[in-house]
Design a protein that fits this description.
This protein is 64% helix and 5% strand. With 148 residues, it is mainly alpha-helical. The longest helix is centred in the last third of the chain and has 24 residues.
Length: 148
Amino acid sequence: EIIRKPDIEMLKSPVYGSEEFLMGFCHDKLVEIDNVFEEIVDLPSKHKAMHLLRHCASFCKVVHLARTSPLKYVETLMEQFDEKQKGALEKNSGTAFTGEEWEQAQMPVGEGGFGLRSAVEHAHAAYVASRGLTEELVEQLVGTSHRI
């Protein structure tokens, strides 16, 4: 089916659109993400909250968007996701992180970090890798090469 409208969302990811559409999409997604962080921080068990924060509310929460949307479409969302993630960790641990401490928290556990990856830092690479892996399939389906 050919879609003939200026704002296109496919598989819950913005594909193309006006600035208002993209901002609205990011706002709606941030409300959803904000609710997740609020629920995690409000848990009575800090240990369970930290476990959920690391395994369920980390980069994995936005990796689908990072793989399917160019960073320029979702950059605001990724930046705010990183801030909300940091805020949830600070609130749960009861301490504010300096820039250096936050960088350490984003390092892998094996290197002394908490394993929280930055959405902004990884979004572009995730998109490029996804496009690279699907380019051959797109060529087969469409018949021509589509470059990033």
